[in-house]
Amino acid sequence: RAEYGILGVRTTLDFERMFQLAAPGHTIKLMDTYIPNPPRKFRKALRKAVSKGVRIQVLLSLPGSAFARQRARECGDEYAQQGHFTHGILTFAKQLLEADPDGASVCIKFYANYAAQPQYLATHGDEAYLALTSIFLGTASRHSPHLEWQRDIATRSTFLDDFHAYFQEHWNDPAHYTIA
Question: Sheet of 27-31: strands edge to edge?
């Protein structure tokens, strides 16, 4: 429904497309528990985006938080093993930071007590122009259908604005954690 900003349904989460669409000076904002074993093309697209001047802001589940433990149980036995989920979060965080050798473009913060849906936003200035969203399912959601959102030029207001405000609220009030 275009009047609500829904562009369509994607069969899987196309991270690479979002990185490719972002122009220098734009920001990609990711809010998720973490991405288990991100594919090589994800890491390549991330590095390319950073090298062309795209900033990356990432909110990940706080390792060891009640929310992370609950999400691990939801994802199943493999994730619920002691330490596996925390290790996955920290490994993904380190992979993100490796894409930014200068440390100027990738920033990671953590959230602890928020029930969040995975959301991936492309922004320019204070305005989001594209988003991919999913819902938490019983398994990792990367290979599940995602909704793609865009700004409705006629109304200038969509769920996209709500997703962006939700991200910013948690970005401005993060849980504290130091990546070793």
Answer: 6-10, 146-150, 127-133, 119-124, 27-31, 55-61, 106-111
The HSE-up count of residue 102 (CA atoms within 13 Å, CB side) is 7
- Residue position matching structure tokens 């950073």: 50
Taking the model in full, what pTM does it have?
0.85
Strands 119-124, 27-31: parallel, antiparallel or unpaired by DSSP? Answer: antiparallel
Q: For 103, left (φ over 0), alpha (ψ -120 to 50), or beta? A: left
Coil vs helix vs strand at 166: helix
User: Which phi-psi region, left, alpha or beta, contains residue 59 (left: φ > 0; alpha: ψ -120 to 50)?
Assistant: beta
Residue ranges, the chain, pLDDT below 70:
1-5, 36, 77-80, 82, 114-117, 135-144, 152-158, 180
Dist. CA 139–CA 3, nearest whole Å? 31
**In this predicted model, what pLDDT tens digit does every residue of 105-155 receive, in sequence order?**
999 999 887 665 678 888 888 888 888 877 655 555 556 677 777 776 555
Would you say 118 and 68 are in contact if contact means Cβ atoms under 8 Å apart? Answer: no
